[in-house]
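agent> step 3/5: call structure_predict on target 'Metallophosphoesterase family protein' (Halopseudomonas sabulinigri).
agent> reason: downstream docking stage needs a structural representation; sequence fetched in step 2, passing through unchanged.
tool.input:
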Amino acid sequence: MTCLLHISDPHFGTEQSGVPGALLRLAQQHQPDHVLLSGDITQRARPSQFAAARAFIDQLPAPVLTVPGNHDIPLIIHLFTRLFHPYRNYTREFGSDLEPVLETEQLLVVGVNSTKPARHKNGEVTEQQIARVAARLKQAKPGQLRIVMQHHPVRAIEESDQSNLLIGRAQAIPEWVDAGMDLLLAGHIHLPYIRPLSGKHSPRTGWTAQAGTAVSQRVRGSIPNSVNLIRHECHQGLHECSVERWDYDAEQDAFALFSETDLALHRSD
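tool.output (status=ok):
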C-alpha cells in the first residue's frame, strides 16, 4: 500500500502554537511514503518564512513534493520583484522546478504551477500546461495512482468560493480526466472536501480532494487545521483508494481522524 500525506496552506509566519508539532507526530505515526504540499507555504513569501518552512519540512519522515501558491510570490507592492523575480525566495529553498513530477511503480504525481504573478490571487492554467499534463498522464503505468497537484481549487461547495476557482478549469479537468487522472489535490480556500470530476469523451470519473490549512492561524470558520492521508493499493488490476481527513484537536493536542472516503477509480487499463 502507498500512503501519502497531503498538506496545504501552512502559511509559515502565521503558525498556530502546538500544531506543527502535532503534524510532525502524525507523520511519524503513519510514516507516509511521500508528502505532497499544495502551495501557500508562506504568508508573505519572505526568506525567513521559507526558511522556517524548510526547517519544518526537513523534520518530516518522507520526501516532500511542493508547488507554489499565490502567497509564495511577493505582494504587488513589491512590483519589480513580483514581475521579474516572483519565485526567487521559493526556489532558494525548494528548487527551480515549479512543476515537479514524482513517479514510482505505484504512483504518478504531476505538479502544476497555477499561480500567475500578474494576478492578485486567482489561479490559471494555460493551454500549454493543460496539454503537458494530459500527455504525461497518458504515459502512466496501469498500476499507478495518477495525481495532479496544484494550489487552486477546481470545484466549490460554498457559493462564495466560486470566484476562487481555477481559470481554465473547464478545459483542463475533462481533458485530464480523459487522460487518466484519478485525483486532483489542491488547497487555497482552507476548506477540506472531496468532489467527483467528469471527463468529456470517456465515461470515467476522477476526484478532487481539498485540504484545509495545515498549521496556520488562518482557519476557516469552525474548520480546524486539517490535512489528508491518502491510501492506495492495486492488486491484479483492481485499485482501492481512500482519503482520510485528519483535523487538529486542541484538547488532545493531536490530529484526529475526522472522516474517511473511499474513492471509486474507473480504469480502462
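agent> step 4/5: record observation. The mean pLDDT is 94.
agent> proceeding.
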